[in-house]
């Protein structure tokens, strides 16, 4: 019996446990506790029951394959192998797979993703786009050989024939999610008016590509409105919530996408009848109105009214002319009176009576002898002209 170091003992125990085949592929049922999600992508947690617990480690390579997010207190089935973490001398379960216990794995993943995307706003009504009322071209992303495309073509041919742009799509299997996304991208580059994306019925596993987050985001980011037509009426996928319109079946999607040709013809006939009826009523009303006017204004009555208006116009013209002449005469008389009054005070009349006006050479008017210097030259302005004189002397005031 030898003496072991701690490391040696732990390694020995590890070899014993890992060599036991029954412990290398084992399912353990329990409840998650002490869950730590490391930034490296690894999960560290314990699973427990009423009286015991065991440590677990789930590495990033395993976690990336999970279709749901482990949560604290979740009941799970853990598949893995028993191992020893020799640094601590702690045995643990190295996880290879985790499945919810009591609830289907895919259904649990569906509920978690639906809740997260809904909180993010991908399903908000304000982001839903209206479908064009009269589309000219419809893009379809589905299998070229499945029943869905045949149902869509049959309904469109019956209701409202339009151009169909089919983008063959893989709708089942591991590569189907990427194929769906690629088809949506290609159709968004075309001149289609809307897109129908979907497939016929199947199990939850068959429909799962339409529950992938990346498919839901591709539908949400589509430039064109998208109708999701996946499975049967009772089937719901994440893509149904992300799409602008959810159709219960591919046939229903075709009915939603286009109007009914029969209904359109019936509606047009109804509009035509309403237009004809309205036009007939308008013509009849106008005819009655013309008859009414004709009864009130006969040709003789019209001529009489015209003569009266002509006579009245002549009278107004005569009165206007007479009034204008009277005003002109009055204004001429007023102008003559003002001219007479102005002429009475005119200095020219004073000159006509033998007076004159004395001015200096500078042009100023001389009003008294006090303003004249001896020998100053003056200009005398008479009625018929002017002359220059020279002042010699002042005479007495009574000269």
Automatic annotation (TrEMBL):
Domain named OB-fold nucleic acid binding: residues: 4-99
Any one of the GO BP annotations: DNA catabolic process
The keyword Ligase appears for this protein: no
Signal peptide residues on this chain, from the entry's feature table: none
GO cellular component: exodeoxyribonuclease VII complex
Keyword match Nuclease: yes
GO MF term (any one): nucleic acid binding
The Exonuclease VII large subunit C-terminal domain, residue ranges: 122-329
Record-linked InterPro entries: Exonuc_VII_L (IPR003753), Exonuc_VII_lsu_C (IPR020579), OB-fold_nuc-bd_dom (IPR025824)
Gene3D superfamilies associated with the record: 2.40.50.1010
Keywords: Cytoplasm, Exonuclease, Hydrolase, Nuclease
Pfam families: Exonuc_VII_L, tRNA_anti_2
Name of the protein this chain belongs to: Exodeoxyribonuclease VII large subunit
Provenance organism: Methanohalophilus euhalobius
